[in-house]
UniProtKB/TrEMBL annotation:
GO terms for molecular function: ATP binding; ATP hydrolysis activity. This is ABC transporter ATP-binding protein. SUPFAM superfamilies: P-loop containing nucleoside triphosphate hydrolases. InterPro entries: AAA+_ATPase, ABC_transp_ATP-bind, ABC_transporter-like_ATP-bd, ABC_transporter-like_CS, Oligopep_ABC_C, P-loop_NTPase. It comes from Pikeienuella piscinae.
Amino acid sequence: MAVSLVEVRNLSMTYRLGAGMLGRTRLFRAVDDVSFSIDAGKVYGLVGESGSGKSTVARLVLGLSRPSGGEVRFQGEDISSVTPARWKELRREMQMVFQDPMSALDPRMPVLDQVVEPLTIHRIGAAAERVAGAEAMLASVGIGLELHGRFPHQLSGGQRQRVVIARALILSPRLLVCDEPVSALDVSIQAQVINLLADLRTRLGVGYLFISHDLRVVRHIADDIGVMHKGCLVETGPAENIFRHPQHAYTRALLAASPDLVPRRCQKGPIAPGVSAGQPAGHRSDCTAISSARL
Ligand SMILES: Nc1ncnc2c1ncn2[C@@H]1O[C@H](COP(=O)(O)OP(=O)(O)OP(=O)(O)O)[C@@H](O)[C@H]1O
């Protein structure tokens, strides 16, 4: 059987919160027994309301935090037990695009240099090759030559996010973790950036962990979807199955919150009481994940 690009097994993350009234440290389980996999070149969309644990999963997949339980395997390798040398390679193979492009870019560095820099850090190619590679990558994300000398504050939000995407993809990663990559952009620009990401994954064969609270965005790009609720993955499966035959009440509630996307028959199921997209997560629920089988 082929090895998955990413395999997340029984992942949990418990945060220690400050001492409560009686001076005891309180624990908060932000991610609870989450399992899913992403095949090479595929897009796994992780959706859920604010606070449901999506970004925590992203940090764990990237190895930026240590899980309290479970493991993340990247191309079959447990990322918690790799050597420092292998870790450096993994840093190159896993790249990320976050919501705020401004924080991902150096405000004092012109656009072209921003994309050359990762090649320099990883000592890839000679100086002239790095520049040629960066120019080609900027062209493929739709950033013309006239913008190469500009600084981040001289770009629009959409242009900035394109530069961030070019900077991430210049290293030819196998995985791109996109955490709310378009939520800071105008709706008209969101579609352009999503189309660009969809096009790039097809052309470059890179797999995505694509996180969004917005089902409309995820539907455009994801092959498979996982629905998170209060730290648990309550449903996972092929995107079309999730949209057409949602099994979990919370998934139906999320779909009902995006009525323009829901096929009419999906709106008939019972809606979980008191749940809507964008509501902060409160107490834990039961964590029974429903796997939506391929039809
Ligand atoms: N370092 C931390 N210490 C304590 N609690 C944390 C920490 N980081 C996140 N949390 C909590 O864990 C829960 C999950 O947070 P996370 O950022 O993963 O959610 P999310 O689904 O990505 O939300 P959003 O869409 O708003 O970014 C939240 O309740 C959050 O307050």
